[in-house]
Amino acid sequence: MNTNEIDQYRYFLKDSNRKEINFKETDQNRGIPAPALEKPYNRNSHRIDLISRDIWSTIPAIDLKDAMVHRESRRVFTSEALTLEELSFLLWSTQGIKKIISNSTALRTVPSAGARHSFETYVFIMNVTSIKKGLYRYLPIENQLLFIREVEQMERSLSDACFGQKFAGSSAVTFIWTTIPYRMEWRYSLSAHRVILIDAGHVCQNLYLACEAIHAGTCAIGAYDQDAIDALIGVNGNDEFTIYLAPVGKV
């Protein structure tokens, strides 16, 4: 390992670089409007209504202590399908909106630096009752799934994009979180990228705990082919790119 390179990466993890940033020159302080809460989409595209938390009937209560005690990474899943209500619960648990403050700011089920929430949630659906297989995007404002496209050999494509980790494609669904960095850069400039990574941990931990409530399991994946996974979900790899993955299935 090159010592200079190691030091550079360690410096990135520190908050020391804030001393070198002139926050008066951020786009926020320059009066540029904040980026929107959600990526735009074609309103004529096929969308699926998710089930609101106000009417969940099959999501059991679970003691938080028990969820933390039993939480673990799980890579082996049964062939049992997730229900639409269970998927709705998992999506809400990880990126659901509790209160919209403005067209650029919302309070969600997970914390985020400055409530900037730089993530979009994509799901590869392999085995969810009443939903056809394919790639979807979560629309948290509308509480809907946006159908993007069918994916040829989806399970194998996911596994290949994760360097042969077969469980990435043997799940009922695989969550992929992308980041749109400008949502965070707009306020925090060069400090944005460190907190984006911190926020990703908040999101995935909520998924782990939510899975315990529905007798499902997940295992976060940080090892993936960046170009391959970005191409698979159709993002450009610059303004938006994959930051984290997590397959989910019954155990």
Describe this structure in words.
It is a single chain. With 251 residues, the protein is α+β, with helices and mostly antiparallel strands. It has a single domain (3-250), classed as 3-Layer(aba) Sandwich (NADH Oxidase). Helix content is 30%, strand content 21%. The protein is built from seven helices and nine strands. The chain has helices spanning 3-13, 64-70, 84-95, 154-161, 182-188, 192-213, 226-233; strands at residues 47-49, 97-102, 105-108, 119-125, 134-139, 144-149, 173-179, 216-218, 241-250. The strands form two sheets. Strands 1-6-5-4-7-9-8 form a seven-stranded antiparallel β-sheet, with helices on both faces. Strand 4 and strand 5 form a beta hairpin. Helix 4 (154-161) runs antiparallel to helix 7 (226-233). It is globular.
Identify the notable features of this structure and list them briefly.
251 residues; alpha+beta; NADH Oxidase; seven-stranded antiparallel β-sheet; two-stranded antiparallel sheet; 30% helix; 21% strand
